[in-house]
């Protein structure tokens, strides 16, 4: 789907697999390889076959997984990777579509490929003007009506809202050419179809490349990667269904890889969409005696600034180890009090997604947007204080608050534990729980506040933030902070497990493959990474209609 610098699992991947000639995952590794991996890591490796890109076996803590590393030096492989693809249709213009469409168009041009990237939108869509501003045009066939683009494309990248996917997928699938490839960016549609007890057409390919960040991050890191080879967004990928055309071009056979055989097939929202907790500045809890601006610095600024940077480059224990003795004591108290309450909510989110409840909730919410659009989330006093703080920010003066750090790291580790308990591989755990938050999302909050981060994401993530943030707020206030106020003893064993947790080794393995570039997006008044095809500063929510938005 994306001819750009991506990471498969926790590494960079230069292009996704649009056709079965490129990559076909195996449900299980060969017995001999499986035995070898088990002996080394006690868990079988996440394996796949590739005929174009080189795969590497990487050890993540006690487990091993195969990954594909990418970079602009891999562009010479794109002609083979996209063999047989004449047109890519990118459907929609939400969070991901502007980034993926522009990145593919530029990568194809750099690789000398004559592949057209076309945008499919409703004729009355307000996004038409934005697409035109990015160089897509009806005159040259790179901008057209949704189903016209779908029916003429060899690769259809479906990036309309999740609620729209739930309503439109029968028409989308019916419009696709036999042998074409459907590209997805997360597993929502598969979950909807499983709930509806229907399958994909047997004469199309179904693949997934899931960037671990919102669309503006995908675009911004790609742009920065033009000068730093290997810069890009980390991602997971999967092949759900492969159709192979026989030499006579008339007969097909199909191999389906079910989610039970390959958990990478279903990458849903929930715990995977990182929610960041800030306590209420106006309660005075743990912040008594501070000015409003100091309170903001010691909570939000501390998380999006030095805490995120430290986790990104050195890992979570480094946040704790960088504190003095008094700070370490506060961190430990905050961590041990917050971990189990946070995990309670993380588990609920995960199981709501797995059961289909969250899918149904998103679909229903999407149908209500005409009556009840999503409101603004940065209008309270707290976020107004944040604007003033950012206006006179001195990065070096932002403190690492030990209480904030303890609560934040505990919530992050709770997400890690839920995903690990549910059987996810470490590359995915690191991507979903840690890397996406500190390398992709938090920099946007750091630049312009919470709405700039949350509302540049998908509808599903935007809804999830509004739904679940109050739950985290309540449970931490009512359980974690009360325990601290009451001076209840912390769980020393729990904290010891944090310090020795194998996820730190897995994240260190990811860090070894981390490019030197950090995402950069401009703050208030800057147009860097902002505007047509980049991050938005005005946000809308539109009800799913009978044609795509």
UniProtKB/TrEMBL annotation:
Superkingdom of the organism of origin: Eukaryota
Stretch forming the signal peptide: none
GO molecular function terms noted in the UniProt entry: ketol-acid reductoisomerase activity; metal ion binding
Gene3D superfamilies: N-(1-d-carboxylethyl)-l-norvaline Dehydrogenase, domain 2, NAD(P)-binding Rossmann-like Domain
Cofactor annotation: Mg(2+)
BP GO annotations: isoleucine biosynthetic process; L-valine biosynthetic process
Keywords linked to the UniProt accession: Amino-acid biosynthesis, Branched-chain amino acid biosynthesis, Magnesium, Metal-binding, Oxidoreductase
ATP-binding in keyword set: no
The protein's annotated pathway: Amino-acid biosynthesis; L-isoleucine biosynthesis; L-isoleucine from 2-oxobutanoate: step 2/4; Amino-acid biosynthesis; L-valine biosynthesis; L-valine from pyruvate: step 2/4
Domain KARI N-terminal Rossmann span(s) in chain numbering: 68-269
InterPro entries: 6-PGluconate_DH-like_C_sf (IPR008927), 6PGD_dom2 (IPR013328), KARI (IPR013023), KARI_C (IPR000506), KARI_N (IPR013116), NAD(P)-bd_dom_sf (IPR036291), Quinoprotein_ADH-like_sf (IPR011047)
GO cellular component terms, semicolon-separated: chloroplast; mitochondrion
PROSITE patterns: KARI_N
Family in the record: Belongs to the ketol-acid reductoisomerase family.
Protein name: Acetohydroxy-acid reductoisomerase
Source species of the chain: Raphidocelis subcapitata
């Amino acid at each position: 789907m994306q001819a750009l610098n991506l990471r498969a699992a926790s590494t960079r991947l230069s292009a996704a697999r649009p056709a079965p000639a490129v990559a076909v995952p195996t449900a299980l590794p060969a017995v001999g390889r499986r035995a070898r991996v088990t002996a080394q890591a006690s868990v079988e490796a996440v394996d796949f076959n590739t005929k174009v890109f080189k795969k590497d076996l990487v050890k993540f803590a006690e487990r091993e997984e195969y990954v594909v590393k990418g970079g602009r030096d891999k562009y010479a492989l794109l002609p083979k990777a996209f063999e047989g693809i004449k047109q890519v249709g990118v459907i929609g213009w939400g969070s991901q579509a502007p980034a993926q469409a522009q990145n593919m168009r530029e990568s194809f041009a750099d690789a000398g490929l004559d592949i057209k990237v076309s945008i499919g939108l409703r004729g009355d869509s307000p996004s038409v003007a934005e697409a035109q501003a990015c160089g897509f045009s009806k005159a040259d066939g790179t901008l057209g009506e949704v189903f016209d683009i779908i029916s003429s494309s060899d690769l259809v990248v479906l990036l309309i809202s999740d609620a729209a996917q739930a309503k439109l997928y029968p028409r989308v699938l019916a419009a696709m050419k036999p042998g074409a490839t459907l590209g997805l960016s997360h597993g929502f549609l598969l979950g909807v179809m499983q709930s509806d007890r229907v399958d994909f057409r047997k004469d199309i390919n179904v693949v997934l490349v899931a960037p671990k960040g919102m669309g503006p991050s995908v675009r911004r890191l790609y742009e920065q990667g033009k000068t730093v080879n290997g810069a890009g967004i980390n991602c997971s990928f999967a092949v759900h269904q492969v159709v192979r055309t026989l030499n006579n071009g008339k007969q097909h056979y199909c191999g389906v890889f079910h989610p039970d055989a390959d958990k990478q097939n279903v990458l849903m929202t929930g715990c995977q969409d990182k929610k960041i907790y800030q306590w209420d500045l106006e309660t005075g809890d743990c912040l008594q005696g501070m000015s409003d601006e100091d309170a903001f610095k010691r909570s939000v600024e501390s998380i999006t600034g030095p805490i995120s940077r430290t986790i990104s480059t050195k890992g979570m224990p480094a946040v704790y180890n960088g504190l003095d003795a008094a700070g370490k004591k506060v961190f430990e108290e905050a961590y041990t009090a917050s971990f189990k309450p946070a995990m309670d909510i993380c588990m609920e989110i995960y199981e709501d997604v797995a059961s289909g409840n969250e899918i149904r909730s998103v679909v229903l919410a999407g149908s209500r947007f005409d009556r009840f659009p999503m409101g603004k989330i940065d209008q309270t006093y707290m976020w107004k204080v944040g604007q003033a703080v950012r206006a006179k920010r001195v990065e070096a003066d932002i403190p690492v608050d030990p209480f904030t750090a303890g609560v934040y790291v505990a919530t992050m580790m709770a997400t890690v534990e839920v995903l690990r308990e549910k059987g996810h591989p470490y590359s995915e755990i690191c991507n979903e729980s840690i890397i996406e938050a500190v390398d992709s999302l938090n920099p946007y909050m750091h630049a312009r506040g919470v709405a700039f981060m949350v509302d540049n994401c998908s509808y599903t993530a935007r809804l999830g933030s509004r739904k679940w943030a109050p739950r985290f707020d309540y449970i931490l206030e009512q359980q974690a902070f009360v325990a601290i106020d009451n001076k209840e003893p912390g769980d020393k064993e729990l904290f010891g497990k944090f310090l020795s947790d194998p996820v730190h080794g897995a994240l260190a393995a990811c860090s070894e493959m981390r490019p030197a570039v950090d995402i950069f997006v401009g703050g208030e008044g800057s147009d860097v990474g902002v505007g047509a095809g980049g991050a938005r500063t005005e946000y809308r929510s539109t009800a799913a209609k009978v044609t795509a938005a």
